[in-house]
Design a protein that fits this description.
mainly beta
Length: about 90
């Protein structure tokens, strides 16, 4: 498992039609929250996002995007991953 502050790790299943195959593919999505800490020199991430991405990739997840929540009461960045359902 992840050793980061991944408190908001959730899975969502979404069906998407394959553009080239014409068949329906089901993806599983995972979200990992990385806390943004405020310091005198600016903002820094609590965990190394690169290591989190590598770790999830080793588990079969593909990195999709990072969603910043910098103005949130508890600033964070959510990393979004996907993989084909059943490819655990």
């Amino acid at each position: 498992g992840l050793t980061c502050c991944a408190t908001a790790q959730r899975r969502v299943e979404i069906a998407a039609t394959g553009a080239t195959t014409g068949r329906c593919e089901v993806f599983e999505f995972s979200f990992v929250s990385v806390e943004v800490k405020r310091r005198r020199e600016g903002r820094v991430l609590a965990d190394d996002y690169r290591e989190l991405i590598k770790q999830k990739a080793a588990e079969g997840w593909e990195f999709v995007q990072a969603i910043p929540f910098e103005k949130h009461v508890e600033p964070r960045i959510d990393l979004v991953f996907k993989r084909k359902e059943g490819s655990k």
